[in-house]
Amino acid sequence: MTAEAIILRPTGAALIARALQQLGVKVIFGLVGIPVVQIAEEAIALGIRFIAFRNEQAASYAATAYGYLTGRPGVCLVVGGPGVLHAMPGIGNSSINAFPMLLLAGSCETHLVTKGAFQELDSISLLTPHTKIAVRPSLDSISQLLTHAYRSSWYGRAGTGFVDLPADVIQGKAEEAASETRIVPVAPRAGSDPEKLAKVAKLLMSAQAPLVVVGKGAAYAQAETAIRQLIDQTDIPFLPTPMGKGVLPDSHPSNTSSARSTALKGADVVLILGARINWILHFGDEPKWSSNVKLIQVDISAEEIGKNNGDAEHGIVGDINVVVPQLTALLQGWKYDTASLYIQALQVSKLKNEANAAKTAKIEKSPMGYHQVFDIIKNTLHRLSPPEDGNVVYVSEGANTMDISRSVFPVEHPRLRMDAGTHATMGVGLGYAIAAHAAYNYPNPEARTGPSTSSKKVVCLEGDSAFGFSMAEVETMARYNMDILVFVVNNGGIYHGDSKDSDEWLKLQENTKQGQNGGLRSTSLGWEVGYEKMAEMCGGKGFLVRTPEELATATEEGFKATVPVVVNIIIESGSAKKLEFAWQKSGA
Ligand code: ADP
Ligand code: MG
User: So what EC number does this one have (predicted)?
Assistant: First the structure.
């Protein structure tokens, strides 16, 4: 071999970047160091966008969200050892929410393993139980194993594919200039047997009180067209889960969200499309559900069927996009009688709950409460961008902030609302927002929803506690010119917070300094912390607001801004449920 040929031999890093490009990867989320920085640079040279975060945790969350929004694995690149440890939250998030992620991490040189090498960690052993596949390629098998990990994370129920990349593989020179990577097509879709489908269709037609539950699996499967047809044809009422919201428009007349308890309790046959019967659906148990409810669970994962309430008889293993059109065809000519007692009960409950919500939204206080805050933000945003356009993506986290805002902000199109998810994970918000911005706005957006092809505004509704988990990522937003609008609903603490007024807070803090019992509570956060400065310090815009007028102005300016914006809303600290403990009651 001539000297020139040796120089032209590609490095492992170049082969990795090339394999990613051939797999169709457009964006990598990550945080580099030696030697994975070479992979990132090779990828950038190939036109792949690299979004560099301030902490691997947020980067890994972003990759999972990108997987959810685009329906293809999101890619995350981190260094070995501590980088892998910091990215583990993303692995948990991917697996618990069934979002596909390809995680690539560096590791020490193969010949230094067990010697105490730089950032040495046996990540294969660590991650094998938590990933769908964990592999370590050699220079010869980079393309093959990367493809395998990508496909494994994606096919079947989604999760994480992990690739451990030793420094000698990244930096080594490969023998062959190009090992072609095979394209991985969308997974083949599974259907069900006709006999089972006919039985289930009959059961639905015989129901007194049928209900369709739409989960985030249906949103991930992009099954909106099929489900819309089923509902429009049959008039069966439906209930979305928190992230199933938008698969069918919230404004659809068959939506029972505002009569949730009545819908669950009264249903006798429930068709469940892409939702596990876990805590979010009260395990399918009494008293939230009727004791003799029949569940028709449609899921791509056979292990899921009948898991909690034992009703596997009517379960269907299959892809929603195949099974639902089959069912719709079998139900042709039949419509649910919307004069039924069930529908009447739902109507009564809807009217009552909606009237209560409208009343609560009108309550004015100073400082403002949650409902008033969300009412102002909603009205301002709707004026600037009506929900039917689908141009706003909501990301929401924080105990009260997420729970209350969920019912306030309607979504009319799928995958426009992300929240803490199955693990109720606080800290996902800013990573999710960056992922949503990248998925919906980058020149050739990989995620699509709604009628409009113009760019979408990402709006984060964050509690002050939730914001704190990854607030450094505001700088990431600024660096990449992401015009994300972040609201921090600031009550000075977790749940209720501690500080009814600043005097009390100062007194408690003084007690803490002096080592006295009765110092700051575990739920306390800083009093009126200037979170808006997070945006100001890196070229964004910050607003500190206390009044309805200030909030409306900040929302409008924030919506129109072309830089990241943090609106710090000081709200009444006692407006959420106060946690009481025995030692406080006894005055200890
Ligand atoms: P939610 O949080 O909305 O209740 P879950 O995350 O609990 O939803 O459940 C989503 C379910 O959807 C998972 O069990 C997953 O296996 C399933 N799923 C994902 N994609 C599909 C698909 N294409 N067809 C059928 N089921 C799917
Ligand atoms: Mg708070």
Answer: 4.1.2.63
Sheet order of strands, 49-52 included: 49-52, 27-30, 74-78, 101-107, 160-166, 133-135
Q: What is the DSSP letter of 396?
A: E
pTM equals 0.95
Confidence of residue 3 (pLDDT cuts 50, 70, 90): low
167, 109 in Cβ contact below 8 A? yes
Distance CA 118, CA 113 (A): 10
CA gap 361, 370 in Å, rounded: 9
ipTM of the complex: 0.97
Q: 3-state DSSP: the chain helix, strand, coil percent, rounded to 5?
A: 45, 15, 40
CA 117 – CA 355 distance, rounded (Å):
64
Report d(CA 47, CA 322) in Å as an integer: 36
The torsion of the CA quartet 392, 378, 555, 413, rounded to 10 degrees, works out to 0
State in Å: Cα 156 to ligand 1 middle: 11
Q: Which protein residues touch ligand 1 with a CB less than 6 Å away?
A: 97-98, 157, 215-217, 220-221, 241, 243-244, 274-276, 278, 280, 298-301, 304, 319-320, 422
Give the position, in ligand 1's atom list, of the atom nearest the Cα of 244.
3
Q: Which ligand is nearest to the CA of 464?
A: 2
Q: Which residues contact 510 (CB under 8 A, 6 or more apart)?
A: none
User: CB-based contacts of 164: which residues, under 8 Å, 6+ apart?
Assistant: 80, 105, 107, 123, 124, 134, 135, 136
Ligand nearest to the CA of 274: 1
502 CB neighbour count, 10 Å cutoff: 12
Q: What is the DSSP letter of 160?
A: E
Neighbours of 50 (CB within 10 A): 17
Residues with Cβ within 8 Å of 587's Cβ and at least 6 positions away in sequence, in order, are none
Run of H or E residues at 438: helix 429-441
CA proximity to 56, closest of 89, 94, 25, 23: 89
Q: Residues whose CB is under 5 A from ligand 2 (ion)?
A: 463-465, 491
Kindly report, residue by residue over 11-23, the tens digit of the pLDDT. Answer: 999 999 999 999 9
Q: Name the least confident of 14-23, 28-37, 175-184, 438-447.
A: 175-184
Residue nearest to atom 8 of ligand 1 (CA): 275
Task: Please enumerate in sequence order all residues whose Cβ is within 8 A of that of 143, keeping only pairs 6 or more positions apart, or say none.
Answer: 15, 18, 19, 22, 179, 180, 181
The pLDDT tens digits for 517-572 are 667 778 888 889 999 999 999 999 999 999 999 999 999 999 999 999 999 999 98
Q: 241 with 215: CB under 8 angstroms?
A: yes
